[in-house]
Structure formats: C-alpha cells, structure tokens
Amino acid sequence: MSNTATVSIDGKTVEMPVLRGVDGPPVIDIRKLYAEADVFTYDPGFTSTASCESKITFIDGDKGVLLHRGYPIEQLAEQSSFLEVCYLLLHGELPNAAEFEEFDHNITYHTMLHEQFDRFFNGFRRDAHPMAIMVGAVGALSAFYHDSTNVDDPAQRMISSHRLIAKMPTIAARAFKYFRGQPFVHPRNDLSYAENFLRMCFSVPAEDWKPNPVLTKAMDRIFILHADHEQNASTSTVRLAGSSGANPFACIAAGIACLWGPSHGGANEEALNMLAEIGSVERIPEYVQGVKDRRYRLMGFGHRVYKNYDPRAKVMQQTCHEVLAEVGHQDDPLLKVAMELEKVALSDPYFVERKLYPNVDFYSGITLRALGFPAEMFTVLFALARTVGWISQWKEMIEDPLQKIGRPRQIYTGAPPRDYVPVETR
Ligand code: CMC
C-alpha cells in the first residue's frame, strides 16, 4: 500500500503521509489538510477516525481479538489477576514479584476514604441510582486529594492513578450500601481486591460475609474483562476532558457519566431487563420479530468494532455457567432464554448479515445477578473495573508530547448571518 494519500479539491492538492501501527489498518495523517486545502473532514461517531496513538490495547474486530499490551484477553482472564492487569495497563509490562508486591501494597493502603467524604452519600436521595452517586462522588475526590491533582507532576499522576484504582471499590460499595439502606463497611487490607469489594458490598453488622473462592475468582475475572477497551466512548470522553488539563478525578467522573448510557456500559442492565421481559423461550420469536421491525434493539448484541464474537463474551459465558453452578441457579430461566436467544440470533440472516454477535454485556447481567447484585449496580461494576483503563489512557495522553486540547470542528447548517429584531417587531 502507498505511503501517501492525496486529496485534490478546488485546484489544491495535498499529499498526506500514511501512518502504520503494529497492526490494524493504515491511517491517513490529515493534520495538514485544513491548513493546506482549507477543508475539514466529516466523521460523526468517529467511525473512520483515529483520535490518538496508543500502546495500551489492540482490538481486531473482524477476528474477535483483544490484546492488552500485547497479551490476549483470554490468557489474562484465565491466568492473571485484576491487580496484575492493572499494573500491566498502567506500566506497560507485567510486574516481577517485587514490583507486584509494592503495587499491591500501594493499592491496598489507599482503599480508605477521608471520613468527611461519607457525608456526600447522605446528600443523595435514598432511591438515587448508584451511577448518579458514582458520577458525583468520584468527581468530589478532587476536593479531597489536592496533593495529587497537578497533572504536570509525574509522581502526582501516579498517586492519583493508585488512589482511583484503590478507592473505586470503596465508593462503589458505599453507593450500593446507601441504595440498600445498610451501613457502610470499611475496607480490610488483608483481603484481595475482589474479596474486599464483595465483603464491603455483602457484609452486614449482623453477619460477616463468607468468602467463596469461586465467586471471588469470578468477580476478579469480570473486572479483568472490563479493564480497558481502546478508544470507546467513555475512554475518549476521559481523554477529551483531560486534554484541557482537568484533574484526573474530574476526568474519570466524566468517563463514568458517558459509560452510564444504554448504548455503552448501561447495556448490561438493559440486557438483563430484556431477558426478563422476554421471560420464556416461547416468546423469543415474537421478540426477535420486534427487533427486525426496528421497534427495539437486542441489548447485549452488536458492537461498533467487533464484527465477530466479542472475545470477552466467550469468557463471560463460561464464567456465567461457573457462577450459576456454584450458587445453585443452573436452571435460571433467564439463562435458558439467553442461550436460546443467542442461538436464534446467530443463525438468523438479519443478525448474520449485520455481523451482530453477543458482546460482553449479554451474559454479564445474569452472572452479576447470581453474585447478588441488583441491576442498578451492573454499570457501577463496569465503571469500577474500567477505571484502570481510563486512567492508563489519560496518563498516556498527558505524557504524549504531541498532546493538544481536543477540539473537533463542525459543518454549520444553522441560520445565515441576520440582523437582531427587537421583540415588539418579531
Ligand atoms: N439489535 C438489533 N440491530 C442492531 C443492533 C442490535 N443490538 N446493533 C446494531 N444493529 C443494526 C442496526 O439497526 C443497523 O442496521 P441497518 O444497517 O439495517 O440500519 C446495523 O446493525 C448497524 O448498526 P449501527 O447502529 O450503525 O452500529 P453502531 O456501531 O453504531 O452501534 C452499538 C454499536 C453497540 C451501539 C449497537 O450495536 C447497539 O446499540 N447494541 C446494543 C447495546 C449494547 O449491547 N451495547 C454494549 C456494547 S459492548 C459494551 C460497551 O462497550 O459498553
């Protein structure tokens, strides 16, 4: 393939370099286009636009491949731990034993929140959606940790990264407890990351939480599956917010707000609601017809990048079976509906032609419900796990010498210039 691409318009010709990454399609570098040809490019939804250079995550959507720093997601989900994946995403390499011990210690010893922070939760209505609490509470971290908001200081960037990874489970568990009307449970440093989170969610004063290695492992794996996913909507939001120099806590709050939407992280809650609405295998044909009539979408299906089976969905499906077997819900009617719906959709030309496959959210709702979480918590768990991806991408952006404030342009289609008319003559 050529090393340059040429655009000719109105007598001006601009030759632009073609950049190549380690993998993925070549990228035409259009940076000089406006200066030299006085034209913009138009790409709503960024379907053909690379917004940055990144060394963190690679997706081949046609082949169904997801790599973090080069390592396949299946291997990380099977053999690694969430904290090790956090280190990998943040630092670029897997840690040796001493590096991991230090990292583990740094995260564990940042899990507590400032005592005054708890007052924020009480300001929310009791029926507040936990994601509403997350957006507010995580942004409020910037009001407490002034010693790690200077984005120009590499040490402060690392401390804020550690704080966010460490404190997200504590905040998420508090959002859950507040929603449930139960007292907050403080973190315990002798427990693993996933164990500590489950205990903060499910322990009550009358009864401590009993660890279950199968469920803890499943929680850890679910965190790994959601840890990062390249330049998706919420990650791009974090990068855009950070491009102005905003502090990391504010940027992550922006990412959480974006994640909440049903086309992104909110899809796991919607997917479970959809399975419950279908209710039985007999109703699947009628529901699928409604999708084809474009009355609604099949939630947990389809992806902007994957035009093949989402590799995370495969691991999630296996985890779902393991968790349901452990808690004795193998006969969960929603699992039956999900498996049959998947079968029907994968053989129906409507879905096949559009390359619609299950994504990570298709089985995550059933799994999280079996772990004891209500649907309102699903996106919160996604946010908790994605925090390391967001902060790694934010750090990479700040450290990129080519970094500029993000400022897209537009095609203006509004009114042409006109004169102001006083109200009495309108
Ligand atoms: N159900 C039915 N039809 C669909 C679906 C679906 N879930 N997704 C896409 N389509 C159809 C769509 O109608 C269109 O058909 P046509 O060409 O005939 O008009 C075609 O497929 C392409 O759709 P699109 O909207 O142009 O695709 P997109 O890349 O903009 O959307 C998506 C990607 C994830 C927003 C979409 O597939 C969707 O809404 N899925 C359901 C929500 C969901 O599960 N989201 C979670 C994504 S994975 C986790 C995450 O990243 O947060």
Q: Tell me the major beta sheet.
A: 3 strands, antiparallel
Distance between the termini: 59 Å
Tell me which ligands are bound: carboxymethyl coenzyme *A
Q: Characterize the overall form.
A: globular
E-strand count? 6
β-strand amount: 5-15%
Describe this structure in words.
This protein is mainly alpha-helical. The protein has 18 helices and six strands. The chain has helices at 33-37, 73-79, 82-91, 97-108, 118-122, 130-140, 154-180, 193-202, 213-225, 233-242, 248-259, 267-278, 284-292, 311-326, 333-347, 349-353, 361-371, 378-398, and strands at 4-9, 12-19, 27-28, 57-60, 65-68, 71-72. α10 (233-242) runs antiparallel to α11. Residues 232, 263-265, 267, 291, 297-304, 354, 356, 359-361 line the site of carboxymethyl coenzyme *A (CMC).
